[in-house]
């Protein structure tokens, strides 16, 4: 079994700054990393799928390095539209997998039973993403090199439509030729993305494609045709992908102060475990109705 943790859209800030003047992202990232560090077993690796820093400054990447430092497993970084490639590379020179002297930070991870390809989808200074001819050629060469190896493709920008109009107006450029390429390579078991700050799954180009939640704020779900782009302080979450040699199974893991766990057999609280920090609190069944996450978000 290979356990892959995917964290996305951290939007880390230089100390003292808030994302959009609202979200104090650094403590939320710290809480999520602490949560990840308590998992047993530990992930084999962590993939951070873009928007690592909110403004991509050296000070933000220095903070990111500090926030990630408790993790003991290998970490693979990808840029998102909020990142600055040069600053990211200069801050993480020990991450030797990051390619040098290239126009995009795409790379492969070949050390695990499932192959992972990280496709850089950013267009500098723009929010929307792009898979241009150069990146398409890179991806095709990668896929042709190991056609029989199960492959998980990570991108920051999802190439698929979501049904939410304001998200789909900025769909990644080049998604059609990308779909044609992916459809010719059935070894691609999944495309897993960030950017949208929501958990979304769909069938796309003959595989399963998804976007993952953010470690900080989430995009508001609004299918109204004229809905503006907005965010909400829904609970942070990350993904755990489990590769079993047979299939890729993905779990959404919420981070926050949640009550429980309770035994199904008798409704009693179980011996406290680290992942449920409220386990020592009075039973939620006999106290005020605390909706999930309320302790953190009010
Ligand atoms: Fe983001």
Descriptive overview:
The strands form three sheets. The chain has a six-stranded mixed β-sheet with strand order 4-5-6-7-9-8. Strands 3-2-1-12-13 form a five-stranded mixed β-sheet, with no helix packed on it. It has a single domain (2-254), classed as 4-Layer Sandwich (Purple Acid Phosphatase, chain A, domain 2). Residues 283-298 have low confidence and may be disordered. The relative contact order is 0.14. It is globular. The chain is an alpha/beta fold and 298 residues long. The two termini are 39 Å apart. It contains seven helices and 13 strands. The longest helix is centred in the N-terminal third of the chain and has 13 residues, at 25-37. The site of fe (ii) ion has 6 residues, from loops.
Brief account:
With 298 residues, this protein is an alpha/beta fold. The chain has helices spanning 25-37, 58-68, 85-91, 133-145, 165-168, 175-183, 294-297, and strands spanning 2-7, 45-49, 75-78, 107-109, 115-119, 151-155, 188-193, 200-204, 207-211, 218-219, 231-232, 237-243, 248-254.
Name some characteristics of this structure.
20% helix; binds fe (ii) ion; disordered C terminus; alpha/beta; 7 helices; six-stranded mixed β-sheet; 298 residues; five-stranded mixed β-sheet; 21% strand; single chain; Purple Acid Phosphatase, chain A, domain 2
Q: In CATH, what is the class? A: Alpha Beta
Low-confidence stretches: 283-298
Query: What is the helix tally?
Result: 7
The CATH homologous superfamily is called: Metallo-dependent phosphatases
How many structural domains does the protein architecture include?
Answer: 1
The end-to-end distance, rounded to whole angstroms, is 39 Å
Helix content: 10-25%
The largest sheet, given as strand count, sense and whether it forms a barrel, is: 6 strands, mixed
What is the fold-level CATH name, i.e. the topology? Purple Acid Phosphatase, chain A, domain 2
Distinct small molecules: fe (ii) ion
Q: What is the CATH-assigned architecture?
A: 4-Layer Sandwich
Query: What characteristic shape results from the CA principal axes?
Result: globular
Q: Helix-strand pattern, N to C?
A: EHEHEHEEHEHHEEEEEEEH
| Secondary-structure class | alpha/beta
Strand content: 15-25%
């Amino acid at each position: 079994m290979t356990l892959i943790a995917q964290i996305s859209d951290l939007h880390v800030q230089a100390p003292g700054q808030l994302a959009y003047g609202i979200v104090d992202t650094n403590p939320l990232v710290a809480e999520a990393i602490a949560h990840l560090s308590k998992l047993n077993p530990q992930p084999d690796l962590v993939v951070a799928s873009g928007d690592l820093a909110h403004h991509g400054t050296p000070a933000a990447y220095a903070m990111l390095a500090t926030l990630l430092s408790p993790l003991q497993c290998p970490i693979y970084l990808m840029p998102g539209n909020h990142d600055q490639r040069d600053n990211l590379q200069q801050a993480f020179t020990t991450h030797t997998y990051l390619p040098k002297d290239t126009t995009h930070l795409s790379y492969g991870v070949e050390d695990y039973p499932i192959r992972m390809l990280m496709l850089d989808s950013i267009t500098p200074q723009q929010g929307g993403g792009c898979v241009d001819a150069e990146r398409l050629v890179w991806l095709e060469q990668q896929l042709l090199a190991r056609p029989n190896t199960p492959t998980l493709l990570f991108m920051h920008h999802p190439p698929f439509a979501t049904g939410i109009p304001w998200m789909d107006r900025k769909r990644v450029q080049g998604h059609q030729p990308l779909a044609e390429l992916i459809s010719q390579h059935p070894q691609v078991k999944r495309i897993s993305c960030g950017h949208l700050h929501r958990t979304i799954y769909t069938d796309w180009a003959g595989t399963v494609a998804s976007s993952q939640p953010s470690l900080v704020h989430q995009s508001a779900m609004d299918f109204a045709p004229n809905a503006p782009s907005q965010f909400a302080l829904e609970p942070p979450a990350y993904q755990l992908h489990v590769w079993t040699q047979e299939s890729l199974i993905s779990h959404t893991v919420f981070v926050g102060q949640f009550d429980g766990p309770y035994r199904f057999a008798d409704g009693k609280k179980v011996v406290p475990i680290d992942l449920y920090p409220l386990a020592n609190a009075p039973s939620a069944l006999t106290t005020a109705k605390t909706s999930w996450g309320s302790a953190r978000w009010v």
